[in-house]
Design goal:
The protein is an alpha+beta fold and about 375 residues long. The protein has a four-stranded mixed sheet, sandwiched between helices. A three-stranded parallel sheet has the order 3-2-4, with helices on one face. It has a three-stranded antiparallel sheet with strand order 7-6-13, with no helix packed on it. The chain has two domains: about 10-245, Aspartate Aminotransferase, domain 2 (3-Layer(aba) Sandwich); about 250-365, Alpha-Beta Complex (Aspartate Aminotransferase, domain 1), CATH 3.90.1150. The radius of gyration is 21 Å and the shape is globular. It starts with 9 loop residues before the first helix and ends with a helix. About 40% of the residues lie in helices and about 15% in strands. Strand 10 and strand 11 form a beta hairpin. The longest helix has 21 residues, at about 10-30. Helix 2 runs parallel beside helix 8 and helix 3 runs parallel beside helix 4.
Length: about 375
């Protein structure tokens, strides 16, 4: 039986093959691989897509978060509030600035950081709030921004999994002081390697990110500050610019698959499907259910040649680097959720027949194991 892939990126290339091939040949012919027109053109298109004045390409989303927080003055002794349910780089970016990551528990229905828990965690040391639009589902930005305004704390949006998502009609990444994006190959807008960007309406943030990511300079031989080599390569930018034109179409296909999953799986008592906040338009980078006997189900699906994933099996506060098991019990919601979450196959070119197979086998699993 044909394998149901968790993600398959090759169809994206086939859909754009002639344009991508021609574009790459053009970049190679001009042999300008660092910066230059391909990067500038992509940054302009990205800013237009997100709805911000500025967009600066960087090496990856970790760099985007790290440098953006640095631009806000986050440093030793400061605190940044974020979610415990995310990839480790969200926390890593805070730690790289010498600050402490403070975790606020999640809303178990949406998997997103809970605004009520954010407010409980605010102290005089809180320098920023870093919500993650996890799995491509926008967080409750109304309540988070209201809290941020009340305490005069900037909000930096981690949009690594949410390229193209909207909240009240606005693209995520345009609502906080800055939005940080990932172009890891499997993301909704994926490069052919690592890549990231910072989008903002703040000229000073854009200037700092642009300068720091290029060895602390805006002019070739004048280094205003110590920086780093965190630039977006021209080949990646050229590919991303072509894929950006397909982003809305591909995200719409993800929503169709997610809608099918949600309707079909809602009938299974042992499965809980994800919810979204009102006034939001998700882009379903991942489709994550809560499933009873999760590990048994994953094994069963693997035996049926269906791939699944875990995003994420261990909350960030329980990672060894963050204290490990001695912290168990601090955040009960996320600790419970991570025992049951399971990521189902999701990508824009996923055949509907494959999605139907996924649902059918989940039904079979629970029907045969009452």
């Amino acid at each position: 039986m044909e394998k149901v892939q968790f993600v398959d990126l090759y169809p994206q290339y086939l859909e754009l093959k002639s344009e991508i091939d021609a574009t790459l040949v053009d970049v190679i012919r001009h042999s300008r691989f660092i910066g230059g027109k391909p990067v500038a053109d992509f940054e302009a298109d990205l800013a237009s897509s997100v709805g911000t004045k500025y967009a600066c390409g960087v090496a990856n989303a970790t760099s985007a978060l790290w440098i953006t927080l640095k631009s806000l003055g986050v440093s030793n002794g400061d605190e940044v509030i974020t979610t415990p349910l995310s990839a480790f780089p969200t926390t890593e970016a805070i730690l790289l600035n010498g600050a402490d990551a403070v975790f606020a528990d999640i809303d178990p229905d949406t998997y997103q950081i809970d605004p009520v828990e954010i407010e409980k965690k605010i102290t005089p040391k809180t320098k920023a709030i870093l919500p993650v639009h996890l799995y491509g589902i926008p967080v409750d930005l109304d309540r988070i921004t209201a809290i941020a305004e009340k305490f005069r704390i900037p909000v930096v949006e981690d949009c690594a999994q949410a390229q193209g998502a909207r909240y009240r009609g606005k693209r995520v990444g345009s609502i906080g002081v800055a939005g940080c994006f990932s172009f890891f190959p499997s993301k909704n807008l994926g490069a052919w390697g690592d890549g990231g960007a910072v989008c903002t309406n703040d000229s000073q943030i854009d200037r700092f990110v642009r300068m720091f990511s290029n060895h602390g300079r805006l002019e070739k031989y004048t280094h205003e500050i110590p920086g780093a080599n965190e630039r977006l390569d021209a080949l990646h930018a050229a590919v991303l610019r072509l894929k950006l034109k397909k982003l809305d179409e591909w995200n719409a296909k993800r929503r169709e698959i997610a809608d099918f999953y949600s309707e079909a799986l809602a009938k299974i008592e042992e499965v809980k499907v994800p919810k979204c906040y009102p006034n939001s338009e998700p882009v379903w980078h991942l489709y994550v259910i809560q499933a009873k006997r999760r590990d048994e189900l994953a094994t069963y699906l693997r035996e049926k040649n269906i791939a699944t994933g875990l995003h994420y099996p261990l909350p960030l506060h329980l990672q060894p680097a963050m204290g490990g098991e001695k912290r168990r019990g601090e955040l009960p919601r996320v600790e419970r959720i991570t025992e049951e979450i399971l990521s189902l196959p999701m990508y824009p070119h996923l055949p509907l027949e494959h999605a139907k197979r996924v649902v059918a086998e989940i039904e079979n699993f629970y029907a045969s194991r009452p």
